[in-house]
Amino acid sequence: MQEIVQQAVTEATVAGADYADARMVTEESESLTVKNQEMEGIDRSRSVGVGIRVLVNGYWGFAATARANDQEVARTARLAVAIARAAARLPGEAVRLAEVEPVVATWSSSVQVDPFTVPLEEKVSLLMEASRRMQEVKGVSFAEAVLDLYRRHTLFASSEGALIEQTIVNSGGGIEATALADGEMQRRSYPNSFRGHITAAGWEHIPRLGLVEEAERTGREAVQLLSAKECPSEVTTLVLDSGQVELQVHESIGHPIELDRVLGMEEAFAGTSFLKPEDRGKLRYGSDLISITADATVPGGLGTFGYDDEGVPAQRVPVIVDGIFQEFISSRETAAELGQRSNATMRADGWQNLPLIRMTNINLEPREGSLEDIVGDTRDGIFMATNQSWSIDDKRVNFQFGCEIAWRIKDGKRMEMYRNPNYTGITTEFWGSCDAVGGREEWTLWGTPNCGKGQPGQVARVGHGTPPARFRNVQVGVR
Q: Which of 252, 402, 445, 454 could form a disulfide with 389 if both were Cys (CB 3.0 to 4.6 A apart)?
């Protein structure tokens, strides 16, 4: 593999590239789904290929191939150079790259038990038992249990002298109970919606999820939601669980701080951002309790790595400090626009695509207290848990999010259950209304394996470490 990527760089340079890099990527995945104690599907995939990126006179060219032989790699490198020369005919300023120190290195995520070596019978048995326990709850119509396993091996080389080998393994799972009655459908998920909780770890993560142990409660809450009242419409105090805070961070902080959006490079498809370069160090993004870091070094995150797809080492970047916006996440190209160095956020969805600025682990730093402490300190309000839907405008300002379940808080206690809860807000006003952020004991590093961006679209694996939090004067329900 080293010979392949080094040959690709050499061929591109000989063909006229001023800069070239090559990534050879091998991806493996396995997804299992059990529904109502029947095997819904076992999906396995494996993909291998080489992506070659070049700069010629300040213009990008990119080409990729799944046939990694000498002749094909040479042809693909020449094609990338030809594409860059064609791009030079289009209007636009020449690309400049911020400097980076090239390294020769190897990096791997932590794995105790290789999930791909665990017997299929053991995996299926776990999912069957979780499904069975949900189905035992009277009123549960569908009981689904899933596992998702993933491994990526990358070898990166550049004309600047970098040669980096990385291996990343992700494992996760979840359960979902659906109840139907009288034209109404309600759903409860555990430990989070959209296929559960995925992290950068091996099989050792799966037993810790407690899918079997939480199955009965998950099914019971789905059934209870059928007879629960609709969430009322009011302006009130809102308490969110860690899982919903994850989605709130992702959509209203993670995407707006991507510097390619700010500079208009994603405007056609993914949208822009309300942030401007001059906001750094000045804009109040949230209350004094809000501190956000972009941390690609924290163990276990889906946004954790040793080096990004430009060979820049992983970093921990203060994005918001005590409510004040400090920094964007950037690439070598966009960082150069601000006279800075990249903070290592360029990643591609496989060998066949160009790297884009992607979130790493965008984390809300913990403060003090548990969820129950926050609820106990709330005289009147609503507690919502587990994301169900999201909508936000292309500048990441106005949003509406729905959750699976909610409870009225009265005098520090959870009371009546509500179904179909949702809330709306304006990004900086919402984060400015935060007056409680939970502590380290309930801070969870969640995985988001389905973050979409780019044109054509790419899907990235990103992470968010979040505790529960409380927000004042929030519009909940339908106005």
A: 402
Single out the residue of 193, 435, 195 nearest to residue 323, CA to CA: 435
Task: Give dist(CA 9, CA 51) in Å, integer.
Answer: 11
Task: Extract the tokens encoding 416.
Answer: 């009546």
Contact assessment for residue 303 and residue 317, using Cβ atoms and an 8 Å cutoff: no
Place of tokens 């988001």: 448
Distance of alpha carbon 46 from alpha carbon 167, whole angstroms: 15
**pLDDT tens per residue across span 25-82:** 999 999 999 999 999 999 999 999 999 999 999 999 999 999 989 999 999 999 999 9
State the alpha helices, DSSP H only, in 162-267. Answer: 205-209, 215-226, 242-249, 259-262
Contacts of 213 (CB under 8 A, 6+ apart): none
Strands 234-240 and 380-392, sheet pairing: parallel
Q: 394-430, pLDDT tens digit by residue?
A: 999 999 999 999 999 999 999 999 999 999 999 999 9
The C-alpha atoms of residue 159 and residue 443 are separated, in whole angstroms, by: 41
The CB-side HSE value for 246 (13 A sphere, CA atoms) comes to 31
Q: For residue 147, what pLDDT band results from cuts at 50, 70 and 90?
A: very high
Distance from C-alpha of 314 to C-alpha of 322, rounded to nearest angstrom: 23
Please name every residue paired with 187 in a beta bridge, in sequence order, or none if there are none. 178
Residue 479 has pLDDT above 70, yes or no: no
CA 271-152-293 angle, 5° bins: 50
Helices then strands (H, E): number in the chain?
Answer: 10, 24
How far from each other are the two terminal CA atoms of the chain, in whole angstroms? 58
Give tens-digit pLDDT for 175-219: 999 999 999 999 999 999 999 999 999 999 999 999 999 999 999
* Domain ranges for the chain: 2-227, 230-476
pTM: 0.96
Q: Determine contact, residues 150/46, Cβ cutoff 8 Å.
A: no
Give SS3 for 444.
strand
CA distance 384 to 225: 13
Contacts of 121 (CB under 8 A, 6+ apart): none
